[in-house]
Design a protein that fits this description.
Elements: H1 2-18, H2 53-63, H3 76-79, H4 127-136, H5 145-153, H6 156-166, H7 173-186, H8 193-198, H9 206-216, E1 245-246, H10 262-265, E2 274-275, H11 297-306, H12 316-320, H13 330-341, H14 346-349
Antiparallel strand pairs: 1-2
Helix pairs in contact: 2-6, 2-7, 4-7, 9-13
């Protein structure tokens, strides 16, 4: 009997030693990541950072991991929440030291269609450049890249994923930036009610249709009955933006305290100029403007309707409206807001491919 037991034990040990591990050893996987973007035009993706399934997965892990912050309490997603189109509903996000940032956190989606640099002032040339700056900012995650790389290198989960994404376990600043860039480039919003309307899959209500007409109709002071809100002047195209930096009349010259784009270019003509953001998912991303001064869309519309402030660098088209205002009635304003609601993409904010993987 004892010999039989010993034989069974030997068989069990041999089987256990030869059993296939539940987690296969990591190997470099270059499977391309397929970007789905509906009716948006084809994006101009970087040729030197081709999206792969494993690269995007690594970027998603990094984006949601508080390990990238000094005290392990904040991730990129802390200030860029998926439920709010990867933005923050606080006027100024609080960093790991409970100190507020200087500008409102921008929404992150459709970065693959961004061709004019990053941040409100465009100080980051590429998305990969942008990705590393909040980690090092003392008002945000307040960590050093050396510490981040050391922490990640100590985690087998990450060394394995770097092997899958890049071919070996070496973790560098460049690879960290490239992985975050891949994930952010994969975040796409293209399935709003308005997109389905354009595809003739859904109809707009009478109010939404009236708001659509106002949105795309130009301001006309000579024929008020035909005048619109002229929103598409700045928020045009399929992504509802224009790849420009503009002064939208928030302050007079004396009251401009944030120089905006001028801080980057050194050109006084860029004073008070900020990136024109997409209006997709705008209902989800209050407060509004670079400094979050407006809490509601009603306040935003009132600003353009009758609150434009004149300064040396304000956009001329906006300055022209100050003589009469946009002449929007209360009904016009509500119709316009109802149209803006059709730009909300519920599939995007609930897409598990972008959610916390941990």
């Amino acid at each position: 009997m004892s010999r039989l037991i010993m034989a069974c034990l030997c068989c069990t040990i041999i089987y256990a030693c030869t059993e296939t591990p539940s987690e296969p050893l990591p190997i470099h996987d270059t499977t391309p990541y397929t970007l789905e973007y509906g009716q948006l035009p084809a994006p101009n993706l970087p040729s030197n950072n081709v999206l792969t399934v494993q690269g995007v997965k690594l970027g998603r892990m990094l984006f949601h991991d508080p390990m990238l912050s000094a005290d392990g309490t904040q991730s990129c997603a802390s200030c860029h929440n998926q439920a709010h189109a990867f933005s923050d509903t606080a006027r100024f996000s609080l960093g790991v030291r409970e100190l507020p940032g200087k500008r409102q956190a921008m929404a992150i989606f459709n970065m693959a269609w961004n061709d004019n640099e990053f941040f409100w002032d465009g100080r980051a040339h590429l998305l990969r450049d942008q990705a590393l700056l909040p980690i090092q900012d003392s008002l945000e995650m307040d960590e050093t890249l050396d510490n981040v790389m050391a922490k990640l290198s100590a985690e087998e989960m990450y060394t394995n994923q770097f092997i899958r994404a890049f071919g070996d376990a070496v973790i560098t600043e460049e690879r960290l930036a490239l992985a975050l860039e891949q994930f952010m480039l994969s975040i796409v919003s293209s399935d709003s009610k308005y997109d389905r309307y354009l595809a003739e899959q859904e109809s707009l209500t009478a109010s939404e249709e009236r708001g659509r007409e106002l949105f795309f109709t130009e301001y006309n002071p000579f024929f008020p009955e035909f005048s619109g809100a002229d929103c598409a002047h700045c928020h045009g195209g399929k992504n509802f933006e224009n790849d420009l930096y503009m002064n939208n009349g928030l302050d007079t010259d004396a009251n401009i305290t944030d120089l905006g784009r001028e801080e980057v270019t050194g050109d006084p003509n860029d004073r008070g100029h900020f990136k024109v953001p997409s209006l997709r998912n705008i209902v989800l991303t209050p407060p509004y403007m670079h400094d979050g001064r407006f809490n509601t869309l009603e306040e935003v519309i009132d600003h353009y309707n009758s609150g434009i402030q004149i300064s040396a660098t304000v956009d001329p088209a906006l300055q022209n409206t100050t003589y009469t205002g946009l002449m929007l009635s209360e009904t016009d304003k509500q119709d316009l807001i109802n149209f803006l609601h059709t730009l909300t993409d519920d599939a995007f904010i609930n897409n598990e491919a972008y959610s916390d993987p941990f």
